């Protein structure tokens, strides 16, 4: 193994002989003159987030905090979802009566892939949202749980608070940096799973949740 | 690397005879082209992002040894294991070894050009391991026993009726319409079983961050999430050029890549993970760093820029040559303009197939304009043509010495290098071309140069050159 390693590194050094010995990586300048911080009013940013998410054919609804439980109940009822996977940190108050909550890790037992697969959907929060691209970011925090939770069920109901929404990708990347350094896994979700492989006809859902519903909540 | 020994011109001639392929391709590239332009125009800082993207990649390439060592350190610290592979054989052996070590008879794969490049599936098959492609298009290709024709939409040459027939026959789906929805649902059911039972997943990588050991896979369907999350063991094979210095650098590529490739503001799913340190997902993570000709490409300071490529496929969709001949004509897993400059550098010159690729272009420059990391593809094409010709001459055959194109290239190089000679040549050309030029195009050159115009029109030399115009207006 180390033989291949040494050989490849040797080849690289040979191949980059034109690079002056004294040059350090930082000497190759990277101009970051692109936008790194939003200048738009936050209400506008939230508006753009809602607009861009809905363009993905995900349904989005804006609600006040006190309306949230009712909005969740309605969404689940419309969907006919009775067996619901919930991330560990999701408050009990979000779960409507009559819906069976499969809480991952309860009693020290993680849900099996089969249980996730057989559920009617998953309810989670998120780490943040990006307005510019209509992206929801999951980082494995308690409101989202491990990656499989939001992957195997066919329906994903996601709650995002307005103050979690940033406008630009660079703003999101900066906020996630701490978690990445701790080794967290991160998933960017932009609309439901989709394919355009057959004659460029867009079809929702090959593998991930085929339906994504987002509740944007004012605190 | 698997590469065709037949020259591009021969393969292209066959492709041109396939009118169905041309129709599908024309439709696809035109659709994506239009969408991409719209997605890009939304970002007021697109040019700044391109600049930054190019610079970050250049930084990484110029100091590749340092960044790879750093990547190895951070992946290892995060609980992963790093392997180095000098060539395809070594990489295949490593991956097969890991799969066998876990007793896997079947592995699930997310589409990856690097694993296509090394022919991993065939190798695994020889070792008794079935690699199941889980990307819908890849599955279609795999079931059909064909090769992909486009980086991004590999089954673009197949229409819905053909796909229905395939699924009926191979997946035993009897009552099946040719509605893409129905077809997709069939694939979903078939593949989900595979995901839930697979012990080993295999992926490529779009980026890997040296600083944090974070590997990134960009995709649409969710099969990437499946393959990198559910199996106990994950093996990622990546070309050594995929490393980027810092986590922050991804803020640039996460804007450049989706808009350039599928013309979306963001692709549906992007996964980032660092080793096994998140305490969930695969319990074992292996990263295979693949050379396979990349250090050879790196050694050409002008050709090196091809290694910046983030495989967005924007250059394919704008290329008038690609639009007509499709991906198979390029004879390798890298089609289109990027294939024309990357393949010959990865395989080395002196073989008929790769040597023909720098000529698979009209040099119109559209590829350079769309490239999100500003690879000057036309510049590299011309540079490689020069290398091909020199290489042929060095091989010393008398025919090579008399090669009219070789002679023309030598004269051209001298002329381009000298301003006075260049201007004199332009005057001469204007005086000499009138019997040949028709409507601003030269359709036939006389004598030994006729081979050039047999397959392409030449722009006639304009009445006034730019330099002359400049002197008249501003001088
Ligand atoms: S060369 Fe540029 S445009 Fe072509 S695939 Fe690579 S990054 Fe995209």
Task: Report how far apart the termini of chain A are.
Answer: 55 Å
Individual helix count of chain A: 5
Helix-strand topology string of chain A: HHEHEEHEEEEEHEEEE
| Spatial strand order of the main sheet of chain B | 1-10-7-4-2-3
Oligomer: heterodimer
Mean pLDDT level of chain B: 86
Largest interface: A-B, 76 and 99 residues
In terms of DSSP E residues, the strand content of chain A is 15-25%
**Low-confidence spans of chain B: pLDDT under 50, at least 5 residues?**
none
Structure classification of chain B: alpha/beta
What's the overall average pLDDT of chain A, rounded?
Answer: 93
> In this structure, how is the largest beta sheet of chain A organized?
6 strands, parallel
Bound molecules: iron/sulfur cluster
Overall shape of chain B: it is globular
Main pleated sheet of chain B: 6 strands, parallel
Q: Percentage of helical residues of chain B?
A: 40-55%
How do the strands line up in the largest sheet of chain A? 1-12-7-4-2-3
With helices defined by DSSP (H or I, 4 residues minimum), what is the helix count of chain B?
A: 24
Q: Count all strands of chain B and give the number.
A: 13
Question: What Rg of chain B do the Cα atoms give?
Answer: 24 Å
- How much β-strand is present in the residues of chain B? 5-15%
């Amino acid at each position: 193994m180390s033989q291949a390693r040494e050989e490849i590194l040797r080849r690289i050094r040979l191949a980059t002989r034109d690079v002056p010995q004294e040059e350090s990586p930082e000497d190759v300048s990277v101009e970051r003159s692109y936008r790194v911080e939003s200048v738009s009013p936050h209400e506008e940013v939230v508006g753009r987030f809602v607009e861009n998410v809905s363009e993905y054919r995900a349904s989005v609804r804006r609600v006040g905090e006190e309306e949230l439980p009712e909005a969740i109940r309605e969404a689940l009822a419309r969907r006919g979802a009775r067996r619901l996977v919930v991330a560990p940190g999701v408050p009990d108050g979000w779960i409507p009566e009559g819906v069976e909550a499969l809480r991952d890790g309860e009693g020290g037992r993680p849900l099996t892939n089969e249980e996730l697969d057989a559920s009617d959907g998953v309810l989670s929060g998120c780490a943040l949202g990006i307005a510019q691209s209509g992206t929801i970011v999951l980082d494995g925090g308690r409101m989202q749980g491990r990656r499989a939770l939001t992957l195997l069920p066919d329906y994903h109901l996601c709650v995002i608070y307005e103050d979690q929404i940033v406008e630009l990708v660079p703003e999101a990347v900066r906020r996630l940096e701490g978690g990445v350094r701790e080794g967290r896994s991160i998933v960017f979700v932009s609309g439901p799973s989709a394919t355009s492989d057959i004659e460029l006809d867009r079809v929702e859902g090959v593998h991930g949740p085929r339906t994504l519903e987002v509740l944007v909540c004012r605190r | 690397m698997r590469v065709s020994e037949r020259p591009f011109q021969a393969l292209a001639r066959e492709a041109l005879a396939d009118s169905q392929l041309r129709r599908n391709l024309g439709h696809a590239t035109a659709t994506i082209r239009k969408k991409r332009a719209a997605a890009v125009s939304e970002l007021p800082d697109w040019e700044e992002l391109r600049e930054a993207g190019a610079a970050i990649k250049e930084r990484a390439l110029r100091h590749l040894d340092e960044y790879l060592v750093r990547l190895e350190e951070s992946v290892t610290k995060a609980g992963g294991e790093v392997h180095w592979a000098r060539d395809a054989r070594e990489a295949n052996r490593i991956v097969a070894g890991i799969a066998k070590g876990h007793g896997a008879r079947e592995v699930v794969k997310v589409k990856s050009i690097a694993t296509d490049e090394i022919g991993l599936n065939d190798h695994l098959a020889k070792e008794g391991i079935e690699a199941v492609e889980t990307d819908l298009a890849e599955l279609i290709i795999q079931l059909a026993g064909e090769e992909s024709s486009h980086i991004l939409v590999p089954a673009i040459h197949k229409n819905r009726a053909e796909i229905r027939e395939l699924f009926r026959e191979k997946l035993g789906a009897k009552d099946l319409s040719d509605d893409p929805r129905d077809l997709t649902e069939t694939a979903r059911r078939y593949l989900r079983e595979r995901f839930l039972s697979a012990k080993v997943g295999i992926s490529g990588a779009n980026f890997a961050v040296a600083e944090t050991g974070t590997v990134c896979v960009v995709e649409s369907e969710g099969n990437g999430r499946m393959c990198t999350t559910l199996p106990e063991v994950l093996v990622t094979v990546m070309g050594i050029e995929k490393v980027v210095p810092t986590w922050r650098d991804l803020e640039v590529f996460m804007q450049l890549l989706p808009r350039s490739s599928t013309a979306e503001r963001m692709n549906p799913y992007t996964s980032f993970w660092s080793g096994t340190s998140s305490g969930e997902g695969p319990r074992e993570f292996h990263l295979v760093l693949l050379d396979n000709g990349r250090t050879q490409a790196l050694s050409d300071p002008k050709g090196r820029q091809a290694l910046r490529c983030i495989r967005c496929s924007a250059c394919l969709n704008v290329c008038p040559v690609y639009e007509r001949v499709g991906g198979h004509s390029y004879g390798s897993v890298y089609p289109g303009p990027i294939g024309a400059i990357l393949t010959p550098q990865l395989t080395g010159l002196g073989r008929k197939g790769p040597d023909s690729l720098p000529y698979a272009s009209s040099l119109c420059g559209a590829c350079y304009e769309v490239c999100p990391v500003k690879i000057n593809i036309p510049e590299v094409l011309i540079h490689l043509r020069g290398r091909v010709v020199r290489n042929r001459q060095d091989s010393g055959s008398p025919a090579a010495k008399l090669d009219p194109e070789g002679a023309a290239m030598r004269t051209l190089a001298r002329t381009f290098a000298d301003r006075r000679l260049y201007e004199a040549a332009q005057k001469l050309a204007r005086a000499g071309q009138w019997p040949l030029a028709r409507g601003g195009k030269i359709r036939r050159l006389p004598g030994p140069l006729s081979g050039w115009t047999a397959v392409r029109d030449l722009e006639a030399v304009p009445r006034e050159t730019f330099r002359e115009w400049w002197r008249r207006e501003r001088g």
